[in-house]
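Late entry, written up from scratch paper. The run itself happened at the end of the previous shift, but nothing got recorded in the book at the time, so transcribing now.
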Amino acid sequence: MGYDVHITRAEHWADNEGREIAPDDWLVLVRSDPELMPTPENGEYFVIWHGTTKYPDTWFDWRAGNITTTYPDRATLRKMFQLATTLEARIQGDDGEVYDEESIENFDDSFLDVNPSGTQPGSASRSGWWTSVRKLFKGS
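Output as recorded:
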């Protein structure tokens, strides 16, 4: 199970009915940001972020009205804050914790250095797994 963080317009990311980020809003933002590279082989809304971060190939994906990533480091949270501001949204973790500028600067991402799966948190190496899951749900 991963530690997911979401860009959401809802009070709680998991209950966003009527407050969804439209997929077209996400795609317009992706096209306007040269650091975001669409990766359609991983899904229609899946992008790799080519910014300065601990991990190569950090990704974001639009899912059910939110933008999500797994195991973000501080730099990724900063990028998420920039994206959330543009989308008139906010950043929220799985448990409902909200990340603002101050909490991002105080975020301790040292726990990311220990990952029992052997993959780098937030890296696109997880995208192969995600692609397999998507295929299961699509019946491919």
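The first strand starts at residue 4 and ends at 8.
(Scratch paper discarded after transcription.)
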